[in-house]
Specification:
The chain is an all-alpha fold. 74% of the residues lie in helices and 0% in strands. It has one domain. It contains five helices and no strands.
Length: 137
């Protein structure tokens, strides 16, 4: 080890984070009307308009993370998106006793995902991505 991060691990980390958002988008598309209903249940405004925007953010951000193209911006966008989604959907402090643990776990899982995305935003995609650092000398 020369102190440089392993390029394959950086790629794998970006890809694994991206898969979470990509699979969520696919699920939203597959269960579109149910997702609109869920968004409305959460009290989100204009769920019919919001859902396509969410899907575009999840698919676009995933593609950008996986390829490394503008990965820093994608990571910041997905981190901000995850903050909003977490605050809207995982309010463990308002959950009843039966749902408290589930919401608590999802809230803190999302906080960890935000941390990983901030790491990508800070350090970039690494050398195995469009716009990544080039290996030096």
């Amino acid at each position: 080890m020369n102190g440089e991060p392993n390029p394959m691990m950086l790629f794998a980390g970006r890809t694994l984070m991206a898969l979470l958002f990509l699979l969520a988008a696919i699920r939203k598309i597959m269960y579109y009307s149910g997702t609109v209903g869920y968004f409305a249940h959460l009290g989100l405004p204009a769920a019919q308009i919001l859902l396509p925007l969410v899907i575009v953010i999840e698919i676009g951000g995933s593609a950008m993370l996986i390829t490394g193209w503008n990965a820093k911006y994608a990571a910041l966008l997905l981190a901000a998106f995850t903050v909003l989604a977490t605050l809207a959907g995982h309010q463990f402090w308002n959950a009843d006793a039966a749902n408290y643990g589930n919401q608590f776990n999802h809230f803190w899982k999302n906080v960890s995902i935000i941390g990983g995305l901030l790491y990508v935003a800070a350090f970039g995609p690494g050398p195995l991505g469009f716009g990544g650092r080039k290996a030096t000398g």
